[in-house]
UniProtKB/TrEMBL annotation:
Protein name: Putative lipoprotein releasing system protein LolC
Encoding gene, per UniProt annotation: lolC
Segments forming domain MacB-like periplasmic core: 25-193
Topology versus the membrane: Multi-pass membrane protein
Domain ABC3 transporter permease C-terminal, first and last residues per copy: 250-377
Cell cycle is among the record's keywords: no
Family: Belongs to the ABC-4 integral membrane protein family. LolC/E subfamily.
Species name: Kuenenia stuttgartiensis
Amino acid sequence: MNKHINLLLLASENLLRHRAKTVVVCLCIIAIVTPFITAISISDGIRAQSLVSVNEGGDLYLTFDEFGRNTSVPLKYLEGIRHIFGVKKAVPRIIGRAYFQNKLAVIVGISEKDVPDSVSCISGRMFENPDEVVVGNELARHFQLRIGDQFSMRGQQRKVFTVVGMFSADSGIWGASLLFMSFKDAGELFGRTDVATDIQIYSIPGHNAEIATDLYTLLMNEPYRLQDKHIIELFVKKGFLLKEGLFTALYVVAFALGIPAILVASGFGLSDRRKEIGIMKATGWNTLEVLELITFEQLLISLLGATIAIIVSILWIRVFNGAFIGQFFISETTLLPKFNVPSKFLPLPLLLGFFFAFLLTMVGSIYSSWRASTESPVVAMK
């Protein structure tokens, strides 16, 4: 045991003695590992926020089907749905897009009492009266809106809305460019007062099958689509896994390109290292001891580089708000997001970052060290 501890201490002394090589290899590790950790943490943060939204939503989602796509539900079926046994609440929603001057905004029309609990106003209040809206922080900042300001939307110039509240994107990134208004106002804005984009059905636990049967009877002659919370959750996870897969595929290319960089960086002072190994062999060291020393060196430098990469990743997200990388996972955002990019640092990506760093450094040094340790000490010291 003492021999291994001594080898570990000697490995740390070697890293301090070869400072230039240590710094260069650490920089290579940081450049390769930091984007991986940052991207995975952003993806995990967005997925966690999405799943919160799914969990707060209904147990069943009803839409109509047209050409294999979701389409609006006529409101004439709403009362019938509410009277189905097992239905606690049926919430119609209108979700669409409209231009707020030159900026595309997401419109959510819903009853004030059905607004999700995760949406909390940082100033003002939730809408209560006709023509009142609650605005996301990015829209409010972009147009310098204040409580009491009035505006009209493109396509419906005759309808004037009043800002009564603002909410932060901390309650969800979707709130950055979002407008909450009453269901009736949203229907008038889009010129469709007799339909909803979907109906959220909150059910008594264990009654989804009975509700589905009664809906089939109610909507027998209509092309409808019914999805439960579990299916929505699977779609959300699948979407983020797809984006993570695309990023991983691109990252593998960067990882492959990083191996030559590590090889070159590890080659600094290679002749000096061969002489050191030759002296070790001449003074009685065996090949396994030499390789163990090299492994300890790579373990320490990988731990150092991965730790700094994690710190840089945290600063990238917390200080620079995921600049240049956030838009890969959040569509329709800028290179410099104007809202707080969500993130979640889990143990597994951090361990994978350290594993990648250790693998790269071992690939860059173990073979050359083995070649030098198996040569004659006289040849190695030349």
